Amino acid sequence: MFIVSSSHLAVPGAEDLSEFEFALTVANHAFQRWMTCGMQAVGARDLSPLDVLVLHCINHRNRPKSISDILFMLNISERHYLNYSMKKLEKMELISKSKAGKEVFLQATPKGSEACQDYARVRQACLLDLIPKDRGVAQSRIDEVARALRVLTGFYEQASRAATSL
């Protein structure tokens, strides 16, 4: 038996994909809830899941990121979503902007970097300690699941392009 949210999409032979989509939806919402709760725990309140992702992306490797790099890294297709997060994070003094020619670069402020490091400590205490030491979950290793998700992302990207051309 497959666990699906939309039986009309669970066509014979593709029930597993419907089950995957439902599991992905539930996992996505749990992950988003975790990100916001994790940041609230370190005092960074009122951040959306996208705000949290953008902050961590900007803080990554402690070097400035261009807007196009962030859009690409996070697979964001609508720049206005990023613009809203950038304004919010800048107002909270978690990131700063600089310009090089016409290009805008973003960098985490010391306050933003500290929030990311504090989040990492909360993540260690609340999440990582729950994960089995062998990194196995449901007969798969977490890195294998991540690789499979990247492959499936490509399928969904291609399907999106195909649907756009209909």
From TrEMBL:
<feature type="domain" description="HTH marR-type">
    <location>
        <begin position="40"/>
        <end position="139"/>
    </location>
</feature>
<dbReference type="InterPro" id="IPR036390">
    <property type="entry name" value="WH_DNA-bd_sf"/>
</dbReference>
<dbReference type="GO" id="GO:0003700">
    <property type="term" value="F:DNA-binding transcription factor activity"/>
</dbReference>
<dbReference type="Pfam" id="PF13463">
    <property type="entry name" value="HTH_27"/>
</dbReference>
<dbReference type="InterPro" id="IPR036388">
    <property type="entry name" value="WH-like_DNA-bd_sf"/>
</dbReference>
<dbReference type="InterPro" id="IPR014601">
    <property type="entry name" value="Trans_reg_MarR_HTH"/>
</dbReference>
<dbReference type="InterPro" id="IPR000835">
    <property type="entry name" value="HTH_MarR-typ"/>
</dbReference>
<protein>
    <submittedName>
        <fullName>Transcriptional regulator</fullName>
    </submittedName>
</protein>
